Amino acid sequence: MTQEIGSSMLIRNTPKSQNEWKKLIEAEGVTSIDTDFAQMAIVQEKGQLTVHWAFEDINVMREHFIPMFEELRPEIADADVEFIALDLVQFQNRDWIQPLLVDTNFYFFAEWMNMEHAGLDPENIPDFPDNVIMRQATDEDVEKMYLIWVQSYGDLIVSPATFDYYLENQTWIGALERDGEVIGFAINGPVVSGLGEIFEVTVDSRFEDEEYKSLLLSAAAYQLTTQDAMRAAIKVRPDIKNALRTCADLGFRPGVGGLEYRRSTDEEYNLSKQKERRSASGVKARFGDWR
Fold this sequence. Notes:
291 residues, alpha+beta, 2 domains, 13-stranded mixed β-sheet, 8 helices, 13 strands, disordered C terminus
């Protein structure tokens, strides 16, 4: 994705205006490198450590991406996390950037999609079956909610620190009970300029085919209207069964989507992956000018 900032054409992993980028790199806890032709930053976003970058052009990126990342790498080791993430948004052709990501041990993880509802209806109150109730979650529910969250995502799980972020920044948490058992929950974030963020809608995998996710999403969207939200947004994984359809059926439409790459912070694991690649491709390690 290229966009014009000032007089320069910049390649960014996520589209951002000059003001958005400035706000990003000046935020508390952000570590960044800035030159006249390239920028790279490590950012804590919703409990997840992420990399953002901007380069003047493709050739500059090819020359400086790896050394800039290596300069920032000690910051990752000090963060006590299992992985660092990197998003690619609106990249039509990834062929040229793929080698750079692989050489720094970033591998494709999963897609994501922002689903947005442009017109919430405060009169659209969800109707729950007789054996199901929706209530405010309590501290006693947190452990069960976390277990449901982990099991429902499976291999697509994000950092546990993200769950902690949701709890610390929530404006409402609803627990869904069936016959006295918590089987799902929804967490709402803040409402900013009429847009409310739904952090999470998750149902126990035993009941994923019983429309409870739709009930929870409806309840979360309705609750946002009590905070004067006119619109709503939720980030979903298309690989999760019925995730996009559930949102679409309730009036949510696709917004910005992207591809998430992850890099392990276990350097022994990264070295083993490099050896696997070399073995698979038949490329021998070089030592100086001799091989």
